[in-house]
Amino acid sequence: MKVTRRAVLGGMAACAVVRPAFAQDEIRFTHAFGETVLKAPAKRVVSLGYTTHDTLLALDVVPVATRYWFGDQPFGVWPWAKSKLGDAQPTLISGEVSMETVASLQPDLIVGIGSGISQAEYSVLSQIAPTLMQAPDQPAYGTPWNELTLTLGRAVGKETLANGLIAETQNTFALSRARHPDWAGKSAVAAYNFAGETGGFTSHDSRGRFLAELGFQPVPQIDQLGKGNFYAALSPEDLSALDADLLVWVSSFNSVPDLVALPMRKILKAHREGREVFAGETIAAALSFGSILSLPFALAELEDGIALALDGDPKTAVPSSVAAGIAP
Known about the structure:
The chain is of the alpha/beta class. Helix content is 41%, strand content 15%. It has helices spanning 2-9, 11-18, 52-58, 79-85, 99-104, 119-128, 145-155, 159-179, 206-213, 220-226, 256-261, 269-272, 281-289, 294-309, 319-324; strands at 27-31, 34-38, 45-47, 65-67, 91-93, 109-111, 131-132, 188-194, 197-201, 231-234, 246-250, 276-279.
């Protein structure tokens, strides 16, 4: 009767009674599959996202498990993050997620952002430990690097560090833009040639966002053809959507013969005028990871080549394109 009496006496008092009380130290996240609550910052983290271990390592949190995506890197950790891993040997989860494996690691947080797990899988995992998914307005793959860093920073109790890392990375890109003010407003596209298919990555993808961070504008046609996806496949008879001021090939050296053999690539002005930059395996992987660790790494490797490609002189050699054998 006590609650009923308060409800009669006043709405505000009633709300105070029926609203659930949140512990002061709880960390709450609303995401695509519901809500996750941490009673304390996480320490034992299973990273199921294909790239989220990068962000955890940047925050000085070594996950007890990482997820294999591609390449032949120990524990799925690429060169830009190896120093953060140190001597640790996390469990590498490959293929479908084994619930038994995850449970055996006794995590206090499972990171499912960028993992592609289903809601049914989430339901099982969340019974093992609090499981964190992408924000409701984000696709399964594609949470921006800064949002991911801040989210995981909160989850592991390192929000101040996360904010500092974000500011540092943003400043790195700002300094690059300041060094190359002529890049602002020029168009750029990150393209791929893989398994007989050629296309471009949209502005919603990490590779497109990397170019935007440098001041470049996306090619509208790529986004239109992508229809909300992270890439747009093109007809081999029409590669005109790739004819931007800057064309960055995000491909491995194994793809070079097919790339060279593309007839319609030869008519692109970007090719004829030497405005192509080639990202080999490691740099292509860094752009694909699109993390707070990999993006500055990619920028350091690509900045000079981009400057040479856009110096206005078609005769200027772009070393990455020459080395790959795709220069005009």
